[in-house]
Amino acid sequence: MTILLHDLVGADPARPFSPHCWKVAMALAHKGLPFACNSVTFTQVPLIEDGASRTVPVIRDGSRVVADSFLIAAYLDETYPDRPSLFGGEGGEAMARFVEAWSQSVLHAGLNMIVLEEIANLLSPEDQAYFRPSREARLGMTFGEVAERRAAEIAGFSARLTPLRMMLRSQPFIGGASPLFCDYIVFGALQWARITSSAKILEAGDPVTDWFERCLDLHDGLGRSVPAAA
Asked: Where is the GST N-terminal domain (predicted)?
């Protein structure tokens, strides 16, 4: 049975960009589970699955509806234990929780300053009317104030990747010899920027850049199925 992934898009349904939905798409591909995407915009999210969640990703697997990327990954490993594991055991799941906290508090904090205005430009007027005030309230600053910080955030973003860079000098993936869900967590954040923003935040020759390219090639190049922003 094909799993349905409710996936976030802007005005162009061919360019899904949510970092959290990308985590789930990569997780489903990792497990070798067939899935289809239902493209939804910000203002359509409350309507999916009878209001099952205020945010995406949400999946439907037969009669089961599961929301939240981490909970979805845990559900997939529990429900399909015969397929490649996303965590590699309890220790891997615990590690992934740390990576999730680091990604949200460090990477997303910087990326919000970098991609916010460009995301708004990808949306329909109806979604822009929702997105701008909701993000200003969440961040506690106006779009103008965010724009003033953008150049500095781009210049300093490489420093946010230092722990990842140091680790990737000795192994090809965060999960070790092969990727795990912890890789997809960080991949989702950088894929979010790749699809929505023209900002250059990764440098040639950097171990992080090489890792990201490897992730883009995973699962028959799933990550490359959406071209980078011009």
From this structure: 8-84
Please tell me the predicted confidence (pLDDT) of residue 1. Answer: 87
51: left (phi over 0), alpha (psi -120 to 50) or beta: left
Domains of the chain, earliest start first = 3-79 (3.40.30.10), 90-225 (1.20.1050.10)
Report the candidate in 70, 16, 67, 60 with the shortest Cα–Cα distance to residue 181: 70
Residue ranges with strand state E in 11-74: 35-40, 58-61, 64-67
Name the one residue in this structure whose structure tokens are 């099952």.
52
Beta carbons of 87 and 181 less than 8 angstroms apart: yes
Specify the 3-state DSSP secondary structure of 8: strand
Residues of the chain with pLDDT under 70: none
Distance CA 230, CA 228 (A): 6
Contact in structure between 173 and 214 (CB atoms under 8 Å): yes
Instruction: Count CB neighbours of 101 within 10 A.
Output: 11
Instruction: Specify the pLDDT at position 121.
Output: 97
Q: Which residue has the tokens 């909970």?
A: 71
- Which residue is associated with the tokens 């460090």? 106
- Assess contact for 196 and 119: CB atoms under 8 A: yes
Q: Return phi, psi of residue 178, to 5°.
A: -140, 160
Residues 40, 216, 33, 60, Cα dihedral to 10°: -20
Q: Please choose, from the candidates 23, 60, 15, the residue with its C-alpha nearest in 3D space to the C-alpha of residue 39.
A: 15
